[in-house]
Design a protein that fits this description.
The protein is mainly alpha-helical and 369 residues long. The protein contains 17 helices and five strands. Strand 4 and strand 5 form a beta hairpin. 37% of the residues are buried.
């Protein structure tokens, strides 16, 4: 295995460090290459070193440790962020517990739906409306305050909250969204191609915000609106083909956009979670073993071939009318599921409101329009 000094020598050329920069470094430093640590790792050059190399270099002397630590922490923060948007709470907490300073770093990662999320770990949990995740992080801000890393835990949390929601929470309610879904039902009914063009246009609309650095990641009122439109137009849809087109390709596609914790609520059984938050499980598979996330790389699976039905348990259903139930029973099942979804989504803004009030912010900063 190469020594740290040999590693530096081998990578100087790829780092484009000039001879003048090296010669101007501290040649009289007590450790080899200590004087050029800041030169090699300045101006973003740390990105040329993998984490294993940086970690090895950081252990050679105090100078290297000081220069390498920010880059190592930044990389660790990104890994923690990925755990958070993937709903992997145990893994995220293990990293934050080992280094609470990760809460202060912004990172850029992609979630399961393909959105780019730019945020701190705490802000990512806020944007996903993941109250379990952000609740886990709160005590670690107090630890940072006790160590002098931040002046005030409460002020840091407040600042991050304000940055995530600079204008308050703006959720367009389901009633204002339903017209789009009623129009989709009409296109499926009236067009020879079952509304193929209209469905594609709808998909472009709800996936247009593909890079998010503030606000919530996805307005789940879309799912309420889609369910309501399906129930209201159930009779008009008429045939199994029409009903299943709306179920699989419209409702299922909305479900593809869920932040991970919403998908985990579905997999846990929405009614179970409403009955007790202790029933919430960080799982992404149905009782039959089929996965909610990750999504297939091609245009298949959720939103194309099936949608998710969740009540006491969850299953991938390729069409309620084809699930062994008659039309009347299928409609009754959907109404029951819709009512459960509605009740759960009514609770979600309350969690943010409670957090807002705990930070001494006026509740009106949370705006639903």
């Amino acid at each position: 295995m190469s020594s740290p000094s040999e590693i530096i020598d081998m990578e100087l050329e790829s780092l484009e460090v000039t001879t003048m920069e090296i010669e101007s470094s501290d040649k009289n430093a007590p450790y080899p290459h200590q004087g050029i640590a800041s030169v090699l790792l300045s101006e973003g050059r740390a990105r040329f070193f993998n984490s294993q190399t940086l970690n090895a270099l950081s252990k050679t002397c105090a100078s290297w440790s000081q220069e390498a630590r920010p880059a190592l922490t930044e990389r660790a923060a990104k890994v923690a962020m990925q755990h958070i948007v993937y709903g992997e709470q145990e893994e995220a907490e293990a990293m934050i517990k080992a280094n609470p300073e990760l809460l202060l770093y912004k990172s850029q990662v992609k979630d399961y739906s393909g959105r780019t999320i730019i945020a701190t770990p705490f802000q990512a949990a806020l944007g996903a409306e993941d109250e379990w995740m952000w609740g886990m992080m709160r005590p670690y801000f107090t630890i940072l305050e006790s160590k002098g890393a931040i002046d005030s835990a409460k002020e840091e949390v407040r600042q991050q909250f304000d940055e995530q929601f600079p204008g308050g929470i703006e959720n367009i309610p389901a009633k204002e969204l339903q017209a789009m879904y009623d129009d989709l039902a009409s296109a499926i009914i009236n067009n020879d191609d079952n509304g193929k063009e209209e469905i594609e246009g709808f998909r472009q609309i709800i996936t247009q915000h593909d890079c998010i650095d503030s606000g919530i990641h996805f307005n789940m009122q879309h799912l309420i609106a889609a369910y309501q439109a399906y129930i209201d137009n159930f009779g008009r849809l008429g045939t199994c083909v029409n009903r299943d087109t709306f179920w699989n390709k419209v409702i299922g596609f909305v479900q593809r956009q869920m932040p991970t914790n919403y998908a985990q609520v579905h997999c846990s059984g929405i009614k179970n979670v409403i009955d007790s938050s202790d029933n919430f499980k960080r799982k992404l598979s149905f009782n039959d073993g089929v996965k909610f996330f990750p999504l297939p790389v091609d245009a298949a699976g959720l939103g194309f071939d099936f949608a998710v039905y969740s009540f006491r348990s969850a299953c991938c259903c390729r069409g309620v009318a084809q699930a062994g139930a008659g039309a009347a029973v299928a409609r009754w099942l959907l109404k029951d599921s819709w009512a459960t979804l509605f009740n759960y989504f009514e609770q979600k803004p309350h969690h943010l409101s409670v957090l807002s009030q705990s930070l001494n912010q006026h509740p009106k900063s949370l705006v639903t329009r």
